[in-house]
Amino acid sequence: MATRRPLKIDGSGNLQEMTDAEIVILRQSCAERYSTNPSVSLSQVSSSGTLAAMADTRLQAGATSTSNTAFVAEGSTAEPSTVTVSYDKISETRASVTDPTDTNNRAYPLYYRNQDGSGATGNLHAMSKTDMIDVFIGPALTTMSSATVDADVPGTYHINTASSGVSGSTIVSGTPIFLDTRADTSAYSAAGIPETADQPTTINSYYLWKVDTTTISISALPCFTDGSGNLEAFTEAEWEALIIDEMRYAAVNNSTYKHTYAIGGSGNTRGSSMVDTRLDGSGNYQTLQVGDDYRSQEFPNGSPATINTYLLKLTLGS
Q1: The pLDDT value given to residue 2
Q2: 3-class DSSP state for residue 49?
Q3: How many Cβ atoms from other residues are within 10 Å of residue 181's Cβ?
Q4: Distance of CA 271 to the CA centre of its chain
């Protein structure tokens, strides 16, 4: 892969190769523009989301046993059972995007062709689409797919247990996309037999967040040849219009750099792990006599145990 270093027009009107720092800023501007209209987006739905479902499990009390002569023995009462609630509240949408074209081979920035040994020193050449991907689009999408949730990954999504106050991000919905619940052992008592079987308490709530757009101050813009063959520097508006189309197409279609979200699998973890916990006891046998009505019931008990850990993943490429 040849390395292209785009050219800029300096303050004296001379052509000059852009510095590494200036190229990094242009890559950041690619991420910024893309975040205003991402072609791969997540939304929260009430059910039937496109991402895999996550199961929250908890214990509930066994059915009450009654007798008019004596308590039903523990070995004959119904054991606590498992309640499972499925959460499939995240959907991924992939936009249908047309591949941008450079019809006259002038749309992209100029570079000195001698960089790859294919021409004389000073020979100007416009970047190809492959060059644009290698220098700007690919590196931007790679950075945006990282596990670090910060200003470098605008327009991407992550999980957080907070329902407000996450700096640099906006919540997608105030409704959790996953709940970890357990049986509330304090809600069960012998005096309450027959107790309601399912009496849960919420341990953790998990929410979907989107990283905010961060304004990038561009220090230098590359140059190109206009329709008359004149050298011109991109205006910021022209540059942004060029890169957002390239970013949107590559994020959906480029086999090396496209973005795909999933629950589990490969890729980088985006935000908090979503943990399903459940009490691990075999049942708390309790009895209550009301006249000649002998009642017995087994309540949930035990210590919290991790049953499953779910991760929102962002995969780069295919």
Answers
A1: 56
A2: coil
A3: 20
A4: 8
In the numeric block, the tokens 């052509």 are attached to 15
Distances (CA, A) of 21 to 18, 133, 224: 8, 18, 20
Q: Do 222 and 318 meet the contact criterion of CB atoms below 8 Å apart?
A: no
What per-residue confidence (pLDDT) applies to 113?
77
| Cα 113 → chain centroid | 40
Torsion angle of the four alpha carbons 136, 142, 145, 146, in this order, in degrees rounded to the nearest 10: -120
Dihedral angle sign, alpha carbons of residues 138, 144, 146, 148: positive
HSE (side-chain half, CA atoms, 13 Å) at 25: 16
Q: What is the mean pLDDT of residues 55-77?
A: 97
CA dihedral 88, 152, 245, 243 (to 10 degrees): 180
Q: How far apart, in whole angstroms, are the C-alpha atoms of residue 214 and residue 227? A: 33
Calpha distance 161→175 (Å, rounded)? 11
Q: Does 115 have pLDDT greater than 60?
A: no
Backbone angle region of 265, left / alpha / beta, with phi > 0 → left and psi within -120 to 50 → alpha: left
pLDDT at 120: 46
Length of the chain: 318
Residue 176, preceding peptide bond in cis (omega within 30° of 0): no
d(CA 295, CA 288): 5
CA count, 13 A, side-chain hemisphere, 114? 5
Look up the pTM and report it: 0.92
**Residue 83 amino acid letter:** V
CA angle, residues 267, 268, 271, in degrees to nearest 5: 140
Q: Which residue has the tokens 């890729």?
A: 267
